[in-house]
Amino acid sequence: MEQDAVAAVEDADSQLMYRIERPVYDEALIRSQLLKRIENSTTLGQRLAHQFRCSSKKAKAAALSFLPILTWLPSYPVKQYLFSDVVSGLSTGVVQLPQGLAYAMLAAVPPVYGLYSSFYPVLLYTFFGTSRHISIGTFAVISLMIGSVAVREAPDSMFYVLPANGSNMSAFVDVEARDARRVQVAVVLTTLVGIIQFVLGLLRFGFVAIYLTEPLVRGFTTAASVHVVISQLKYLLGVKTQRFGGPLSAIYSVKAVLYDITSTNVSTLILGLVCFIFLFVIKDLNERFKKKLPIPIPGEIIVVIVSTSVSYGMSLSDDYNVDVVGKIPTGLLPPTVPEFSLLPSLVTDSFAVAIVGFSMGISLAKTFALKHGYSVDGNQELIALGLCNFISSFFQTFAITCSMSRSLVQESTGGKTQIAGLLGSLMVLLVVVAIGFVFQPLPQTALAAIIMVNLLGMFKQFRDIPTLWRNSKIELAIWLVAFVASVLLGLDYGLLAAIAFAILTVIYRTQSPDSAILGHVPGTELYCDVDEYEEAAEYEGIKIFHYNSSIYFANSDLYVNALKEKTGVNPEHLQAVRKAQKKQKEKANGNHSFPMKMMSAQERGVTHEVLSYNNVEKEQGNGQLGDGHRESVSEEAVFLEPLSTVHSIILDWSPASFIDSVGAKAIKQVIKEYAAVDVRVVIAGCSRSLLSELDTLQFFHWGHDPRDGVPHRP
């Protein structure tokens, strides 16, 4: 019987104890008497029929899942929520309008397409989304990723044309044709992004975002902010440079701006700096007094209105060569079919945009859901984003996700539901339909200032570096690799490199986990690392090996090596010692006429050999076994000292969650090797699922002695 004494409650006066008595169980007893598996009598056809059986309850659940608006709109509390949603919607719309214009520049399309992307997707998300607080629409990182693809597929070099009059003027870029082609690329990319997100949502692949770990996302978005700021330098300075894409594009862009910095437009620079400083001050005031201000000060819309007025009143475009937004068509475009012939070259980019967009959206949605006590469905969010991108792409939009800055405005101003987002999108619709022409004199340098100031919060993520240095060097490496790779290789290749590196760190952690020899802490049922805790004491002749990982093809050899190193028992060395002893004895008995008889006594826990009595007298260190009265031709069993002081090794598999065939073969082999040198290996702490895997792998064999090198049930 086993008696376990466990400390249950400890107070200032005494320690209460309780004692348990139960039989000592082994796996055979558990399976034969204590546990019985539930037999599944249903066939595959029955399970499929049950899965696809349609009922009114299932149909209602499917409808509510696909259209989450049906779960809250019928019971919408007008008196409690409507005023807050109206205030929040107006505040969000005021921010969404200038950001839509600005982020279109990042996407390398005319500004009006940013307004389209700020209306249609927001309208659709109201019906299909599960988050009540995120603001869907244009976002700097996604816009920049789209812009890099558009520039790659439609570079300026494709649209150089010669003057029609045959003069000696150099060729110039056909801006209208170039922008039309880039719009086609952005629209087709958005269509493909929507299809990918929708299909992944139907396949319940909402978990894919977990592969974008937080350090990876933060390093990636910080690098994207660097790209965004670099791309806006030419607009802030008013210089004319080519837009680069692909690896090292950030370096080429900075080089081009510095090369042409002498041609800086002073009027553009002054206006941009004034807008930048004003927005920075407003952001700081909003942050400092956010608890006292009923709504944030709308710095972006103030900059847009004032800079547009100044530009129109002073004729900045005509008199000072300040670049402005230009023509903004009035009204919405009719739906058109995307140019699907561009699809083959955009597949890789669309996957990157789809995953990054979903990752940004679901992370922010979960943050707000946790704060306000509701839940979001990752799979439905994928479906919602997919529908927003796919359907909207037929109306000439580019890919969207949630914006961190607008979402914070929508939530902090009291937004309760997506009615707030809907009202914000209606403000954008009003501008597109009725007053879009008002913003035609808007200077591009003002939009560049808006973009840069909105990304200042992203650069605060550099503060992660000292924190990660203290807490986790591996996560710091992920952050740095994501940042450096994305800055140097571009956002698409940088993301792939960061994900590959993050996966490699997981493999590294499973290949090089902590391992230890455990010892018993007297008076408790605790087993701790003997190298770390002085109270932990080993049992004589027994080694308990703990390895903090599962066992599979990538680490099975490392597991075996760590086992031999930690226990100090290497079967190969012991076998070599045994062979040397045997050879020495055979050599010493080479001149005798009677044969030397060898046999093992593993069942006694020691190694013995049968030697002639005369030969025993010559061996030192094996003990004196006989007297002079024995005959010289008689044989006597001489018991040798064990090759090792360790007779048993216990493998603690409590941390292991799975094992594959390679790992099982490695464990089988090491058990055989130890059995050959009289060391028994047993396994402890197996979970039921791990035992099932071992059964499937035919790890156990019945009817053999456990010391013959065949694995046995613990």
From TrEMBL:
Give start and end of each STAS domain.
Answer: 532-714
- Which InterPro entries does the entry link to? S04_transporter_CS, SLC26A/SulP_dom, SLC26A/SulP_fam, STAS_dom, STAS_dom_sf
Q: Which SUPFAM superfamilies match?
A: SpoIIaa-like
Supply the Pfam families for this chain. STAS, Sulfate_transp
Any one of the GO CC terms? membrane
| Keyword tags | Membrane, Transmembrane, Transmembrane helix
Which is an annotated GO molecular function term of this record? secondary active sulfate transmembrane transporter activity
Q: Looking at the record's lineage, which domain of life comes first?
A: Eukaryota
The annotated topology with respect to the bilayer is: Multi-pass membrane protein
TM segment ranges: 102-127, 134-151, 187-212, 257-281, 293-314, 351-370, 382-399, 419-439, 446-462, 477-508
- Write out the annotated subcellular location: Membrane
The record's Gene3D superfamilies line, in alphabetical order, gives: STAS domain
- How is this protein named in the record? STAS domain-containing protein
Which source organism?
Perca flavescens
